[in-house]
Write a structure and sequence with these properties.
Length: 263
């Protein structure tokens, strides 16, 4: 009985020894892995420490950039609001006038010009530019009206309505200064960008400009084209009167389409 028990103990002891050996190997491997991990961590920390100033500088730079972007956006918003308030205050002086004359526009010129210069780049300033050109035109300052309407054509490329208005005013300003060729060039540009109903007026304007240039043949040609265009302005009677006057002066008459001859 004792002998059997001793054999069992010995076998158990042998198994225990084997188990202890395996566990020791695992421990040694774990220790080596931990040491390697520790070395990598130390190397990483050393690398970060060596570049600490660089990381700090980049972090501060990003923070400053974010603050600047936010600050610039806020500044531009405040600037836009101030420009809109000033513009509304200025235009309110014309609120009760349907067709402001030179006397009404004259006091606004300085305010509109100041707004355009002080708040350059804002939407309110770009709108004020259009009104400033109108103010110069209404007060007979045609040179300045041309300067600002040329600027409007450059700055308002994305606004067809504002460009159309600026180009119309350029025709009037050039005509008032006797610069008929420049006025005709603006009319030609208008023909390429206007709706069919407006072409009637532009053709009539070109006829008037050629009359001023004493080119009755071209004048009659454009008046006839105006008569053939759809629209109500100028009225047929006004255009026909112009054609009749040209006939009396002996101007060459344009060919009239047969379908337009009254039966």
């Amino acid at each position: 009985m004792l002998r059997g028990s001793s054999q069992t103990v010995l076998r158990s002891s042998g198994l225990a020894k084997k188990k202890i050996k395996v566990s020791a190997n695992d421990i040694r491997k774990s220790v080596r892995t931990a040491e390697q991990t520790s070395k990598v961590s130390e190397q990483m920390m050393s690398w970060v420490q060596a570049r600490r100033q660089w990381f700090l500088g980049v972090g501060i730079g990003l923070l400053v950039l974010l603050v600047m972007v936010w600050g610039f956006g806020s500044y531009e918003q405040v600037r836009e609001r101030r420009a809109q308030m000033q513009y509304a205050h200025t235009l309110a002086k014309l609120a009760n006038q349907q067709n402001p004359d030179a006397q009404a526009w004259a006091p606004l010129i300085a305010e509109l010009k100041s707004l355009c210069e002080q708040y350059r780049g804002t939407r309110a300033a770009r709108t004020a530019q259009v009104d400033l050109a109108q103010a110069y035109l209404q007060t007979g300052q045609f040179d300045q009206a041309i300067v600002w309407d040329l600027k409007n054509l450059h700055d308002l490329k994305a606004d067809p309505a504002a460009r159309l208005l600026a180009q119309q005013r350029l025709v009037m300003s050039y005509r008032a200064l006797g610069k008929l060729d420049e006025a005709l060039a603006e009319c030609a540009a208008l023909l390429g960008m206007t709706a069919p109903g407006f072409k009637r007026e532009v053709e009539w304007l070109m006829g008037q400009l050629y009359i001023a240039k004493h080119n009755d043949g071209k004048a009659a040609e454009h008046l006839q084209k105006a008569l053939e265009q759809a629209g109500t302005y100028p009225a047929d009677g006004i255009i026909q009167t112009g054609l009749a006057q040209l006939r009396q002066s002996g101007a060459p008459q344009p060919l009239v389409p047969t379908d337009s001859v009254p039966q």
